User: What shape does this take?
Amino acid sequence: MSSSPRLEKITADNVEAACRLKVRPDQDGLVKPVAWSLAQAYATPDIAWPRLILDGERLVGFVMAFFDVRFYPDDPNDNRLRSGLWRLNIAADQQGRGYGRFAVEAVCEEIRRRGQTRATVSWVPGEHGPEQFYFRLGFRLTGETSGDQVVGELELGDA
Assistant: This one.
């Protein structure tokens, strides 16, 4: 990272640049494009928290968190509200520079600020997937799946 990265809201001024952000070609099937994420955020504004990751004025990534979601809404025994990382897209030429770690830490801080003590993430397992990245950050598998993805959690401590 060359300066201090920061998160910024999506606006009319930056949405086109956000939609042009591309991950590496070998990651295309592992994470949805930013435009897809923004459509989901538009459709679920009460739970979605989309942000651009900027370093100076340079767009380096996109992160979207979710807050207070029941994973199994049809299960009357699922009373646990979860918050966590919904999407993380780091530009292909910006990976390996600490921006992903910054984004996950920023999401965890927002989760703490909102009173939660655990962060949840899911990912597609596979050769080019982010599993080792999440393990290095302290996430541990829960044994659950969400579609074709595995679920991991990170204890954040007291809010």
